[in-house]
């Protein structure tokens, strides 16, 4: 227990760092995921191609490699930002590809007649997608979206290797101070458990409230 009590501030900073990464990257992933899903079902061919390439590249690229590309590659092109911002970009863009596919699978469950009825009423593609298709699709994909955000929270541990303050990185400091590595990781694991269970509880609530009844 003294591993936690003696280093509560260290754990606290790491925990809050992981929470911040998770929250900001999740928001970015949701926005980009919705946008890319819209592109993938858009009537404009160039949009569909862009969405397809986005998903294919990011889903088949190791996240660690993406971190290297963003955190070390973008500054070479003159884009200099705090490492935490780069980490949010890497996590958010990577996860957006999976959210896009989850949402697209939900769009495919909406009967085609819904879209045809909306268009017959004179609604544009954007109006049909935003007011008719996506609200129904989201109800059916709440569980997979939640699972992707839980994976994002755990993937944020990679950011510690790039000088970003997060929970897993606290083991380095505590190891140098001579604390038991086993108990160090026990408290780290508990911190991740708190974050992931919170996300799970949130999406369980959303599923009970808005999910499709089975």
UniProtKB/TrEMBL annotation:
InterPro entries membership: AA_ABC_transptr_permease_3TM, ArtM/GltK/GlnP/TcyL/YhdX-like, MetI-like, MetI-like_sf
Organism whose genome encodes this protein: Streptomyces monticola
The organism's place on the tree of life at top rank: Bacteria
Similarity comment text for this entry: Belongs to the binding-protein-dependent transport system permease family. HisMQ subfamily.
Gene3D superfamilies noted in UniProt: MetI-like
Compartmental location: Cell membrane
Bilayer-spanning residue ranges: 15-37, 49-74, 80-100, 181-206
Protein name: Amino acid ABC transporter permease
Alphabetically ordered keywords of this record: Amino-acid transport, Cell membrane, Membrane, Transmembrane, Transmembrane helix, Transport
Main location group: membrane
Lineage: Bacteria, Bacillati, Actinomycetota, Actinomycetes, Kitasatosporales
Keyword tRNA processing: no
The UniProt record lists the keyword Amino-acid biosynthesis: no
Positions of the ABC transmembrane type-1 domain: 15-203
Topological category with respect to the lipid bilayer: Multi-pass membrane protein
Signal peptide interval: none
């Amino acid at each position: 227990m003294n591993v936690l009590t003696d280093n509560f501030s260290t754990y606290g900073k790491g925990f809050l760092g992981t929470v911040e990464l998770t929250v900001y990257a999740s928001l970015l992933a949701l926005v980009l995921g919705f946008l890319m899903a819209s592109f993938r079902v858009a009537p404009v061919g160039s949009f569909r191609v862009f969405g397809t390439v986005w998903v294919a590249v990011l889903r088949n690229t190791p996240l660690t490699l993406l971190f290297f590309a963003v955190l070390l590659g973008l500054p070479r092109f003159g884009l200099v930002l705090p490492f935490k911002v780069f980490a949010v970009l890497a996590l958010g863009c990577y996860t957006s590809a999976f959210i896009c596919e989850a949402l697209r699978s939900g769009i495919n469950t909406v009967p085609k007649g819904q879209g045809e009825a909306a268009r017959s009423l004179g609604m544009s593609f954007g109006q049909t997608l935003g007011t008719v298709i996506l609200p129904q699709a989201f109800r059916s994909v709440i569980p997979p979206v939640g699972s992707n955000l839980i994976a994002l929270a755990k993937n944020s541990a990679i950011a510690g290797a790039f000088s970003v303050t997060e929970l897993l990185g606290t083991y380095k400091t505590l190891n140098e101070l001579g604390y038991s590595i086993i108990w160090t990781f026990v408290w780290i694991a508990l911190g991740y458990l708190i974050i992931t269970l919170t996300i799970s509880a949130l999406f369980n609530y959303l599923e009970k409230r808005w999910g499709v009844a089975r």
